[in-house]
């Protein structure tokens, strides 16, 4: 497989993951962190870092909007819930 095709496939897979997470607003970031060790914020940071590696200036908010599909504050207001004690304990266990 040539480099261009590989890059296009990776980009398509990223967009599909981003869109899947956008549709699954019931899955909280803490759930993703507890199970997978990453969350939407991690993806947005990686996106921002990839931009910086290419000399593209991108703020944290711009990176988050690229992943969340809206300003992060709007996403939090619409979809984020308070973490349960069980979620907090699982986070401590997996990231402590």
Would you spell out the secondary-structure blueprint of this structure?
Elements: H1 3-23, H2 29-36, H3 40-53, H4 60-68, H5 72-79, H6 85-95
Helix pairs in contact: 2-6, 3-4
Structure commentary:
With 96 residues, the chain is mainly α. The chain has a single domain, classed as SMc04008-like fold, CATH 1.10.3340.10. The chain has 6 helices and no strands. The mean pLDDT is 95.
Task: Give a nutshell description of this structure.
The chain is an all-alpha fold and 96 residues long. It is built from six helices and no strands. The termini are far apart.
For the structure shown, list the relevant keywords.
96 residues, mainly alpha, SMc04008-like fold, 0% strand
- How many domains make up the 3D coordinates? 1
Assembly state of the chains shown: single chain
Strand and helix order: HHHHHH
Residue windows where pLDDT falls under 50 for at least 5 positions: none
The share of residues in extended strands comes to under 5%
The number of helical elements comes to 6
Radius of gyration: 15 Å
Indicate the overall shape: globular
CATH superfamily: SMc04008-like
Overall average pLDDT: 95
Q: What name is given to the CATH topology?
A: SMc04008-like fold
Which structural class should the secondary elements be placed in?
mainly alpha
How can the largest sheet be summarized? none
Helix content: over 70%
CATH architect. name: Orthogonal Bundle
Spatial gap, N to C terminus: 41 Å
Q: Output the CATH class name.
A: Mainly Alpha
Number of strands: 0
């Amino acid at each position: 497989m040539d480099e261009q095709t590989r890059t296009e496939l990776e980009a398509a897979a990223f967009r599909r993951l981003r869109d899947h997470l956008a549709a699954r607003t019931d899955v909280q970031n803490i759930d993703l962190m507890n199970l997978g060790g990453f969350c939407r914020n991690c993806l947005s940071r990686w996106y921002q870092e990839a931009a910086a590696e290419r000399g593209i200036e991108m703020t944290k908010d711009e990176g988050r909007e690229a992943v969340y599909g809206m300003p992060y504050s709007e996403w939090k207001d619409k979809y984020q819930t308070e973490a349960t004690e069980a979620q907090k304990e699982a986070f401590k266990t997996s990231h402590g």
